Amino acid sequence: MNKQKALLIIKPDGVQRGLCGAILKRFEQTGLTIIGFKFLQAPEQTIRDHYPSTDVWYGKVGQRTLTNYAKKGIDVKKQFGTEDPIEIGKTVKGWLVTFFQESPVLVAAVEGHEAIEIVRKLSGNTIPILAAAGTVRGDYSHDTIDLANAQFRPLRNIIHASDSVEDGEKEVHLWFKDDEIFSYKRADEELMFPPQR
Ligand code: ATP
Ligand code: MG
């Protein structure tokens, strides 16, 4: 088994729409073990620490806007005053900090075989309009980059899911204290992953 930890956050749009139970069910039924769980008003600093402050991350986020605006023929400079993806990424991070404080969020730490690939698969594409049917973002949102950016807000894509093993570990430690993380076996674990004979 390749056990990994991942962090899930049901963002304020998911909480305010009453989707916590429906979303969590999908991760539980696929076999992931919930090892930490809390509902809280996220502190500003935790949100700032959660999303990277690196040029690589800012650039990735800003590039989404550039790609979408080019496709739709929208003038990015008119909206953002710049064509620099890093500067646009910084603006989006500011929006995320405000958005995450709109309501409490539900934070869950999960663990299981190939957990990172599973949480990303079940969450779907970051941009809801592109997310496949059957994924959380595809089933519950159809937001687009151009609408979100025109309204000076991040994509309302309902869920956060860790996107690498390192980030999974880091994010679980950021949101949970050591004694808030639990170790136990799900009843179906031995059936799914029998010990080597
Ligand atoms: P998350 O980290 O929330 O799971 P992700 O890994 O799919 O999402 P990131 O690139 O880390 O995507 O971006 C973090 C969040 O910022 C996205 O989930 C989305 O809400 C928002 N976001 C990213 N890029 C843009 C953009 N260009 N315009 C508006 N919002 C964006
Ligand atoms: Mg991310």
UniProtKB/TrEMBL annotation:
<dbReference type="InterPro" id="IPR034907">
    <property type="entry name" value="NDK-like_dom"/>
</dbReference>
<dbReference type="GO" id="GO:0004550">
    <property type="term" value="F:nucleoside diphosphate kinase activity"/>
</dbReference>
<dbReference type="Pfam" id="PF00334">
    <property type="entry name" value="NDK"/>
</dbReference>
<feature type="domain" description="Nucleoside diphosphate kinase-like">
    <location>
        <begin position="3"/>
        <end position="183"/>
    </location>
</feature>
<dbReference type="InterPro" id="IPR023005">
    <property type="entry name" value="Nucleoside_diP_kinase_AS"/>
</dbReference>
<comment type="similarity">
    <text>Belongs to the NDK family.</text>
</comment>
<dbReference type="GO" id="GO:0005524">
    <property type="term" value="F:ATP binding"/>
</dbReference>
<keyword id="KW-0547">Nucleotide-binding</keyword>
<keyword id="KW-0067">ATP-binding</keyword>
<protein>
    <recommendedName>
        <fullName>Nucleoside diphosphate kinase</fullName>
        <ecNumber>2.7.4.6</ecNumber>
    </recommendedName>
</protein>
<dbReference type="InterPro" id="IPR036850">
    <property type="entry name" value="NDK-like_dom_sf"/>
</dbReference>
<keyword id="KW-0808">Transferase</keyword>
<keyword id="KW-0418">Kinase</keyword>
